[in-house]
Amino acid sequence: MQVTNEFLQNLRQDYKSATLDESDVDNNPITQFIKWFDHAIEAQVYEPNVMTLATADKAGRPDARIVLLKGVDENGFRFFTNYLSAKGKELKRNPYAALVFFWPDLERQVRVEGIVEKLDKETSEEYFLTRPVASQIGAVASPQSQVIPDRKFLEEKFEDLKLKSEGKSIPKPAHWGGYLVKPTRIEFWQGRRSRLHDRINFELVKGNWVKTRLAP
Q1: Which of 99, 98, 110 is nearest to 37 (CA)?
Q2: Is the terminal CB of the chain with fewer CB neighbours within 10 Å at N or C?
Q3: Could you give the C-alpha distances from 38 to 32, 33, 48, 110, 184, in angstroms and in order?
Q4: Exposed, middle or buried, 173 (CB in 10 Å: 0-12/13-18/19+)?
Q5: Are 173 and 84 in contact (CB under 8 A)?
Q6: Helix, coil or strand: residue 111
Q7: Which of 3, 74, 26 is nearest to 211 (CA)?
Q8: Per-residue pLDDT of the chain (216 residues; tens, 9 = 90+)
Q9: How many C-beta atoms lie closer than 10 Å to residue 7's C-beta?
């Protein structure tokens, strides 16, 4: 099949599985997010904690990639990564980010904007110890976002570290840890027929969440 502009223009889905009314949405958007996340788990959505993380470089150019949500509470949304990666460097210069969750099986999307700060060392170490050993070694072995000569370079470094760490605990590298996205805006999107989607938006105003409906 040839992908043409005409094919893409006619590629569409009419959403009809659910509705979203202001009265159905909790006044606390974190509580509402957890409720929707629970629905995604119950619906057996594949990797419901997958989220797009958007940052901006020093010139203001946007950058985005997929990461995994590894914690959520009243303080915000957590993820872990290499501090020396592209996203780590961008967040150091500009500590603001956006997150997008998309659960197509439920025809739902959640958008988050907020201020980003590093999690403390103890919290990062605690999470690092819960990771599979291979993932721990991978975090040490991979110079994330840096140019490497080939795949063999990475695999050899991994195997070397694996042999050296056999029977030993692997300490969290100093350049690896967690971030917390402290939300200032959260939007809940429910797909509807004829593109008249439901959008319930929360803005943090003077420490309080203000709920409004946005046009699709």
Answers
A1: 110
A2: N
A3: 10, 9, 9, 14, 22
A4: middle
A5: no
A6: strand
A7: 26
A8: 788 888 777 877 777 778 999 999 999 999 999 999 999 999 999 999 999 999 999 899 999 999 999 999 999 999 999 999 999 999 999 999 999 999 999 999 999 999 999 999 999 999 999 999 999 999 988 889 888 899 998 999 889 988 888 878 899 999 999 999 999 999 999 999 998 999 999 999 999 999 999 999
A9: 10
**Long-range contacts (CB closer than 8 Å, 24 or more residues apart) made by 169-172:** 170/133, 170/136, 170/137, 170/140, 172/124, 172/125, 172/128, 172/129, 172/139
Burial 94-133 (b: 16+ CB within 10 A, else e): ebebbbbbebeebbbbbbbbbebebbeeebbeebbeebee
